[in-house]
User: Fold this.
Amino acid sequence: MTSQEEQPADLDRTARPARATAGARATDSDQYQRRPVGAVSGLPLPQGNGSERQLLEQWLDFQRATLAAKCEGLSDEQLRTVSAPPSDLTLLRLLRHMTDVERHWFRFVFGEQDATPARWTADAPDDGSGAAGAGTGAETLAAWQREVERARRSATGRTLDAVGTDPRRPTWIYSLRWIHLHMIGEYARHNGHADLLRERIDGATGF
Assistant:
């Protein structure tokens, strides 16, 4: 389960260490500024310090990587399995839902012309988590990964204070800072669902 991810197992040697304070002498303790990896998941954990933007982006990427880990190694049939009835939620549906969520918050609210949510309609405003849909697991995962990359590119060109609006709620204004916080919460919530779905499919836990 995600909640077990509390202790670092080792340091991610590919991550660059944080710079020491100007004038300070580097010591062996500087190694702890490198990003550790989780003892259970092996995923790079967010730094213990850093700028606001670094920490927001790292926590969001950690949640994204957790969802990918929940789906890793499963067949199409398993990804489509309704494993926790009476809910009809599946891991494939979670991936489709989060694809639209990425598109909506990082691109649609900032007016990008190609960012209309693919699965939201007037009759089904949040259809991604409930519709079976077409496409294989690999295709769905690839579509989600593409949207994540587009979201990263969109965010890179904006400050945390940049604001956008949702045409469905024209009086609401969202800063990129708010969007990062919302997305971290959105992924964390659904990764909890994914924890249960994956365990019921094949018994795997501890991501």
